[in-house]
Design brief:
There is one protein chain. The protein has 397 residues and is an alpha+beta fold. It folds into four domains: 109 residues, conserved putative lor/sdh protein from methanococcus maripaludis s2 fold (Beta Barrel); 102 residues, Beta Barrel (Elongation Factor Tu (Ef-tu), domain 3); 53 residues, RNA polymerase II/Efflux pump adaptor protein, barrel-sandwich hybrid domain (OB fold (Dihydrolipoamide Acetyltransferase, E2P)); 74 residues, Helix hairpin bin (Helix Hairpins), CATH 1.10.287.470. It is 27% helix and 35% strand. It has five helices and 21 strands. Helix 2 packs antiparallel against helix 3. The longest helix is centred in the first third of the chain and has 36 residues.
Length: 397
């Protein structure tokens, strides 16, 4: 290779090196986009979801009041009966005989009154002229009084026999739906037996008994006393049925128990619900959504924007000054629909990050925008409630 050629190649290499050193650096990556919601104060309906059981408005266990053999059953099992309707007939032959015997004893006692009364009257006249002794008159008068007492006693025995005969016809004590019969015609029943013949339940209106912790009741009363919660919508209850559907008729809270159950620390609340279609059956397990009141000026944060740090504390990320990410430690009270009521750590006007939180760090410059999946509640919109006893409530401080 000639010397001129080598010099030419070196010159070309130097030119290429000089041209590479003059290239500009690659452009910086744009800030990550995040979805934010601007927080504001709004009214929140406080609803507590509690477990409950359906209880019949009235329940009557039908039992025999005399002993005997059932002769007939006069109702359709599972049907509706009215108060006073005849349900069973017990063989009344022994009781008819006892009534006839009591009637005869009463007639005999009535007959004895006349003879003893007349004798006492005669002795009264004779004792005045000393025709009979005073002792004989006293004995005759006592016999007359005893005869009158015997009449009263026999009349009572006849009435008792009549009552026992009436008890052979067992009638419905209340109106309602009757269950299956546990005894058939021909069965021997006895007064005071443990097993009921059947049961009648009135279910056109039913009770719902729910349990609420004493701590929750105290928190609610204190919030009402401080003015943070109003009772405008209080005492309304909605039912969630076992299949997940909502019962179409609202109930009303009737009363709360006056004592706290020492074993569970809960207080029993009782509500009434109309049940015209018989959909609510006694013993059914339901969940009751109790409207406790309204909380004015509450800050509602979407649950997607509240997370937990490694220590279990509730935290939120907001877009601060110069669009830099800030981490806030927050305190939440309860869930209201898909949002948390935030009592500390956030304020109106904060831009809460609800989307794009993956790998996001404090101090990162972001590009805030409207979220694609999470929407803010419209002014005046009521939120449905979830259970106040949520896991976040216990540790979010």
């Amino acid at each position: 290779m000639q010397k001129g050629t080598i010099i030419g190649l070196l010159a070309c290499a130097s030119a290429l090196a000089l041209s590479g050193c003059g290239e500009s650096p690659p452009p910086a990556s744009p800030p990550p986009a995040v979805g934010v919601i601007t927080l504001k104060r709004e009214s929140a309906t406080l609803v507590n979801e509690l477990p409950g059981r359906i209880v019949a408005f009235e329940t009557a266990e039908v039992r025999p009041q005399i002993s005997g053999v059932i002769r007939r059953r006069l109702f359709q099992e599972g049907g509706n009966v009215r108060a006073g309707q005849l349900l069973y007939e017990i063989d009344d032959a022994p009781y008819r005989a006892a009534l006839a015997q009591a009637q005869g004893s009463l007639a005999r006692a009535n007959a004895a009154i006349r003879s003893t009364g007349l004798q006492a009257q005669r002795y009264k006249d004779l004792v005045g002229i000393n025709a009979v002794s005073r002792q004989e008159y006293d004995d005759a008068d006592a016999a007359a009084q005893q005869a009158r007492a015997d009449v009263a006693a026999q009349r009572g025995a006849m009435q008792a026999a009549q009552v026992n005969q009436n008890f052979t016809r067992i009638r419905a004590p209340i109106s309602g739906r009757i269950s299956r019969s546990l005894f058939t015609p021909g069965a021997l029943v006895q007064a005071g037996q443990a097993d009921a013949l059947t049961t009648i339940q009135r279910t056109d209106t039913v009770y719902v008994d729910v349990s609420q912790s004493a701590a929750q009741i105290i928190d609610l009363k204190q919030a009402m006393k401080s003015g943070g919660v109003s009772e405008a919508d209080g005492a309304r209850i909605q039912l969630l049925l076992p299949n997940g559907s909502v019962y179409p008729i609202e109930g009303r809270l009737q009363f709360s128990e006056v004592t706290v159950d020492p074993t569970s620390g809960a207080v029993t609340l009782r509500a009434t619900f109309p049940n015209p279609d018989g959909l609510l059956l006694p013993g059914m397990y339901v969940r009751a959504k109790l409207v406790e009141g309204q909380r004015a000026q509450a800050i509602l944060a979407p649950q997607q924007g509240i997370s937990r740090d490694p220590r279990g504390r509730a935290t939120a990320m907001v877009v601060g000054k110069d669009n830099k990410v800030e981490v806030r430690q927050v305190t939440v009270d309860r869930a209201v629909g898909d949002k948390w009521i935030v009592t500390d750590g956030l304020k109106p006007g904060d831009r809460l990050i609800v989307e794009g939180l993956v790998n996001l760090r404090p101090g990162t410059v972001v590009k805030p925008g409207a979220p694609q999946q999470v929407t803010a509640a419209q002014p005046g919109q009521k939120n449905g409630a979830q259970n106040a006893a949520s896991t976040v409530q216990g540790g979010a401080h």
